[in-house]
Amino acid sequence: MPKDAPPNGDAAPVDPAGPRRRVSEMQAKLHCWAAADPGRRFDDLFNFVHDPATLLMAFDRVAGNHGARTPGVDGMTVADVEDLVGVPGFLDDLRISLKDGSFRPLPVRERKIPKPGGSGKVRRLGIPTVTDRVVQAALKLVLEPIFEADFEPVSYGFRPNWRAQDAIAEIHYYSTRGYRWVLDADIEECFDSIDHTALMDRVRLRVKDKRILALVKAFLKAGILTELGDRRDTMTGTPQGGILSPLLANIALSVLDEQVMAPWKPGGTMTSESKRAYRRRKGLPAWRIVRYADDFLVLVHGTQDDAEAMREQVGQVISPLGLRLSPEKTRVRHLSEGVDFLGFRIQWRRKRGSGKWFVYTFIGDRPIRSLKTKVRALTHRQSQQGLGYVIMRLNQILRGWSNYFKHAVAKSRFDALQHFVWQRVIRMLQTRHRWSWHDIRRRYTTRTGRWLPITAADGTELFDMGNVTVSRYRWRGHTIPNRWTTPRTA
């Protein structure tokens, strides 16, 4: 295969904004057509998939992911492709194989990782080859703007410009308006159990191009190479870890959003606040679903029996998809007990010092335990890592964690966690350098007794979570901007 060739003479390198602009304009057109005609089935999409600009953008996204250094069953990483083959030659060969129909996805390499929470259970991840990842990313670039036009505004997971904080804000918004009973649902092995026939039927509602359908089905049927080296066929499910898997899961589960939210559609019995108030006067419930990928809550304005009835309804909706609710993890709760969702704990409780009740959003216990575990691993007393590296890694973890939770009731938590991190680093330094407490005070306090930040030799300071501004996240409702409304030019 040819390697990367330098530009001829004084020719300038290819401007990456060109392919990006071309793909963005293509996506904007597809999204506009899909939104204008909800019943339209798209044909001749395959040319967009193997377009050189699409493949180049897809490769850039694959190379920019954290998993770029993880090989598939062929043992090749992104760096190997760049060094041994060359990106232009690699993409040219891939485009030819797509056009002549010789492309076949390889089985994904299975990797088992422990589930969070210390339950002892594992989650199966599928690691595709670099070639398959690029094709999946190209498919996603083409299919995502089409199906985004159909997704309900109650689905927040793995969608561009939609955030977990938006889902929490919506739960907070409706729970303060009387939606106090909650169906806390868990789908059992969702990604591994989705029925391929039902999923392909959902894809065919929008896609008529047989080559696209065959390519999606080929990825679903690619198979798995287990950690023991055994080949296993995939009769159901879309393995977690693939770039295309979250989009396919959203396409499958969109039937749940449509069924549960049908009364909220124009002409439905819950379209307006007045109609919902009329139902409440008649003793009838109102409900709303908030979903983030395969995690979702159903908020009910009614009684516990109404919430139990929603459990049966949801079970019937997802049954044709080959899915079922976990009997152990699915339960009906009142918001006064508190509900954990996406790391947050949402609870209706009395305000301290008053007789008024409000809905509060706290940080869940599990994320705090997880954060402390990471901090302990980095600040072990016998650690041989340099202080600069330890502070750099701690800052990365603490900044990301605090930015995610800074819209909760988190000020006291941040202060307590910052004190915990500070103590861990100080104890590590005491053990490493055999410092006494007097030595610590001499190095990290001013003459007036004020504590100085812990700083490495290169000047890197330990991030202070206590200084993070805590503010309420405003619910954006249905005004979340869409990236394809106007074509991007850069």
From TrEMBL:
Gene: ltrA
Lineage: Bacteria, Bacillati, Actinomycetota, Actinomycetes, Mycobacteriales
Superkingdom assignment: Bacteria
Residue span(s) of domain Reverse transcriptase: 94-346
Entry protein name: Group II intron-encoded protein LtrA
Originating species: Nocardia aurantia
Region: Disordered, residue numbers: 1-22
Alphabetical list of InterPro entries matching this protein: DNA/RNA_pol_sf (IPR043502), Group_II_RT_mat (IPR030931), GrpII_Intron_Splice-Mob/Def (IPR051083), Mat_intron_G2 (IPR013597), RT_dom (IPR000477)
UniProt cross-references to NCBIfam families, sorted A to Z: group_II_RT_mat
